[in-house]
Structure formats: C-alpha cells, structure tokens
Amino acid sequence: MAASSWVLLQTMLFHILFSTGAIVVPVPFSNCQHADGDPAEIANPSVTGDQLTVSVSYSGGCEEHSFQVCWDGQFVRGETEALHANLEVWHHANSDTCEAYPTDMISFDLAPLKQAWRDTHGQETGSVLLKIGGDSVTYQI
Q1: Is 37:92 a contact under the CB 8 Å cutoff?
Q2: DSSP alpha helices (H): ranges in 17-136?
Q3: Is 53 exposed, middle or buried, given 0-12, 13-18 or 19+ CB atoms closer than 10 A?
Q4: Which end of the chain is more exposed for a tag (fewer CB within 10 A), N or C?
Q5: Pairing mode, if any, of strands 76-77 and 83-92?
Q6: Nearest to 108 by CA among 27, 34, 31
Q7: pLDDT tens for residues 43-73?
Q8: What is the pTM of this model?
Q9: Exposure of 25 in the CB half-sphere (CA atoms within 13 A)
Q10: ∠ at Cα 77 (87, 43), nearest 5°?
C-alpha cells in the first residue's frame, strides 16, 4: 500500500463525543471490532456527500459515550455483490450504568475512504457499497 494511502487510512477511525453536540476528533486507524466495545444498535445508514450518518441506540444517559467507525482497509468484491467495504461502529459507554436508552444520529467523514478507493483503483469516480449495522448504503465516489 502506498504511503499516502496508509496515512489516509490512519485517519479513517473517528471518535465521537456526546455532550450537547457531536465533536469529531481523528484518532489513529485500527481494525477495531464492534464486539470489543459496549452494546449499541446501529440503524438507518445514509450518505450525503462524504458524510456517513447512522442512528445509534444504547443503554446509558449519565456519562459521555464515545463511538468510532472501524474499517479494515479492504475493498471486497463478492461473487454476486458489488464492491463493498465492511464498516463497524465501536461504542465505549465509560461505565455508564444508567438505564435510559437514548438514540443519537452520528456522522463520520468518508473522505479518507474515498481517497483510499481512488488510490487503489486509479479512478476519480465510482461507487462502493458500505455495509454497516446489518444494512448497506451506496457511497458514490
């Protein structure tokens, strides 16, 4: 993988903090796993421009929760599927024992994934199916 692609992949992982709003802070790329974090339900993925937005529901409500989008850096082509990228959302509840069940909309910047796609495929435009939370959404590059 080219050095520029690796740098872009390193920025693919984002950290979302909730207080009165969402603050997006880049953190180093890793192939994190949803199962390694705290439970959360991910639904309704949508893409607008270079932003992936998902609905996330989780138990808590008394502490700040953090979320990261995880990607293994691979574009996969199945026998019957379009080119896709498997994304996961990792959740850290910060030991929140409250029993409320909030739902928030969180967004992640897809520009690093777009650049990795361009570097890999040598094209400026195309599409990739993003698989996340049991759903799929097409990202037009």
Answers
A1: yes
A2: 111-121
A3: middle
A4: N
A5: antiparallel
A6: 27
A7: 999 999 999 999 999 999 899 888 888 888 8
A8: 0.74
A9: 9
A10: 30
